[in-house]
DNA sequence: AACATGACGGTAG
DNA sequence: TCTACCGCCATGT
């Protein structure tokens, strides 16, 4: 078997999503950028839609660039996703829009701090 | 193989 | 503020 290949984009995305701290949120674009494909935000969304339980368990911390719960229907209704976020202390500026200014977590910031 | 769609993002008008 | 278009690329028809 060939070894030494770089990790798949999917695995990088999943790893980043799992590192999102509770009470914080990030965006598809930020994850895509941190994974090395800034213009593949759609792939991040697609991957989360097909993510294993280990990842989908914290996927509610991923919102779109406007802080809207665009993936909320994955829980049956955006209200469920909102409840999960509120339970972690995330505040909202609208029915289904989180306060990005207040809770945004950038994966690149993590990489810069821990090296 | 061509076309449409999608848990997106950025730019242009 | 809102609409439209492009880029990205896996999946379904």
TrEMBL record:
Superkingdom as given in the UniProt entry: Bacteria
CDD domains, A to Z: ATase
SUPFAM superfamilies registered for this protein in UniProt: Methylated DNA-protein cysteine methyltransferase, C-terminal domain
Name of the protein in its database record: MGMT family protein
GO biological process: DNA repair
InterPro entries per the UniProt record, alphabetical: ATL_DNA_repair, MethylDNA_cys_MeTrfase_DNA-bd, MethylDNA_cys_MeTrfase_DNAb, WH-like_DNA-bd_sf
Pfam families reported for this sequence: DNA_binding_1
Domain Methylated-DNA-[protein]-cysteine S-methyltransferase DNA binding: 8-90
The entry's keywords: DNA damage
Entry's Gene Ontology molecular function annotations: catalytic activity
